[in-house]
């Protein structure tokens, strides 16, 4: 499915064959199978060595090009890993690797200090674009046009600016870092799934991981009755929540027209619960999550005729990661543990052992207070009211209103 009811998209790992008689045949050519998980995993040291070999093979293959190749550098673990390895492989080429980064005027959100850690350790040629609300709103309509659906958050606009920067500097191929968050449990929510799995399989390890989680995140994870109920019966609370929605309107829906609320009540929740980390990662990698990011990256890059190559999604590397036990991915509070340990010899410690995760974050809430954004929000609200999509606007939904109005106008 897609955002549009009458338009479908080909599922990952499939191809279509259109025959002379007009008939269409769809076939799957690759699938990440659940049974690929090893019965006997290699030692962690052996697994790190194999991960390093596969990752370098993937990078080398994606360097094949008769045009300049660059990379995006955010200062995070994933992009930094690519940059330092590329720099090592290209050091005798005579052409320093060009990196492209988004910077933020707000020091609290700017990752320049982490980018500099990588730049100081390598011979890369860095390029920057400084983000601000005026640039974002200038890009808004064109970004929507190329993405053809609402933008989930303002970082999509930042990503587009980085693609424009690469185009302006004559680099038509970028090696980018999408994938490890979904394959190796980089997002904080994956901890909860892992905790459920440990609750059912290894309570002693759960106690240790909960202590590490508190040390890393500065907050306590509640492993009380609700958590234990979800671990044993993952769909019970979702079913109760759906029943509650059928009887009462959730607060976040109260701005919508009564007809839309009634329709929404009947929709099943699209977020399944998992009790095993690898199952959750498989879903995020192949069904929901990564697919949106890849689509957005492809639309933003191709708007400037840039080809993006993704070494972390080399199929042999992904298959290897899914053959490994969860403890190689989340370990003592560290996410993407096997990646950290594999890259430790090459990366600055400040990057290898970063605890925070920022990425392409932006001060979206502050930007929406900018006069040009406020004008756009008010216009969008008037359109949605006129078409009876909303009644009383909710200030927390300003971003959604902008794109709901754009979709509506495109279909009137």
Strand order of the largest sheet: 5-4-3-6-7
State the helix count.
19
Cα distance spanning the termini:
22 Å
- DSSP strand (E) fraction? 5-15%
Low-pLDDT segments, ≥5 res = none
Number of strands: 7
Give the ordered list of helices and strands.
EEHEHEHEHHEHHHHHHHHEHHHHHH
Helical amount: 40-55%
**Biggest beta-sheet profile:** 5 strands, parallel
The mean pLDDT is 89
Q: Cα-atom Rg, whole angstroms?
A: 23 Å
Net shape: globular
Q: How would you classify the helix and strand content by structural class?
A: alpha/beta
Descriptive notes:
Helices cover 50% and strands 8% of the residues. The protein has helices spanning 44-62, 77-90, 112-121, 133-147, 155-168, 180-183, 189-201, 203-217, 225-232, 236-247, 258-265, 277-286, 290-302, 315-322, 337-343, 349-352, 364-367, 371-386, 398-411, and strands at residues 14-18, 24-28, 69-72, 98-103, 125-130, 173-175, 307-309.
């Amino acid at each position: 499915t897609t955002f549009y009811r009458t338009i479908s998209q080909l599922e990952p790992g499939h191809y279509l064959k259109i025959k002379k008689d007009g008939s269409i045949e769809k076939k799957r050519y690759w699938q990440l199978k659940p049974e690929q998980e090893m019965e006997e995993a290699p030692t962690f040291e052996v697994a790190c060595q194999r991960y390093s070999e596969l990752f370098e093979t993937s990078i080398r293959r994606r360097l094949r090009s008769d045009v300049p190749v660059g990379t995006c550098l955010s200062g995070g673990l994933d992009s930094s890993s690519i940059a330092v390895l590329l720099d090592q492989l290209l050091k005798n080429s005579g052409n320093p690797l060009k990196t492209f980064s988004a910077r933020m005027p707000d020091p609290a959100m700017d990752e320049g200090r982490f980018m500099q850690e990588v730049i100081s350790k390598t011979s890369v040629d860095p390029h920057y674009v400084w983000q601000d609300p005026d640039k974002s709103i200038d890009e808004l309509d064109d970004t929507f046009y190329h993405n053809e659906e609402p933008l989930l958050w303002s970082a999509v606009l930042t990503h587009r600016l980085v693609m424009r920067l690469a185009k302006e500097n004559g680099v038509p191929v970028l090696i980018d870092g999408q994938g490890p968050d979904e394959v190796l449990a980089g997002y904080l929510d994956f901890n909860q799934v892992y905790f459920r799995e440990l609750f059912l399989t290894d309570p002693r390890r759960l106690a240790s991981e909960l202590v590490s989680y508190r040390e890393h995140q500065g907050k306590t994870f509640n492993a009380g009755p609700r958590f234990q109920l979800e671990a044993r019966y993952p769909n019970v609370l979702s079913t109760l929540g759906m029943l509650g929605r059928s009887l009462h309107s959730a607060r976040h829906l109260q701005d919508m027209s009564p007809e839309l609320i009634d329709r929404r009540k009947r929709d099943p929740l699209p977020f399944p619960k998992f009790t095993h980390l690898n199952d959750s990662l498989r879903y995020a990698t192949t069904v929901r999550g990564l697919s949106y990011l890849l689509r957005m990256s492809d639309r933003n890059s191709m708007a400037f005729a840039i080809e993006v190559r993704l070494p972390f999604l080399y199929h042999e590397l992904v298959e290897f990661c899914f053959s490994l036990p969860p403890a190689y991915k989340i370990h003592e509070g560290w996410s993407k543990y096997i990646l950290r340990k594999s890259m430790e010899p090459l990366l600055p410690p400040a990057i290898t052992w970063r605890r925070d995760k920022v990425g392409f974050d932006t001060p979206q809430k502050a930007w929406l207070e900018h006069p040009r954004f406020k004008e756009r929000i008010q216009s969008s609200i008037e359109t949605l009211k006129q078409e009876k999509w909303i009644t009383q606007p909710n200030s927390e939904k300003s971003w959604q209103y902008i794109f709901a109005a754009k979709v509506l106008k495109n279909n009137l």
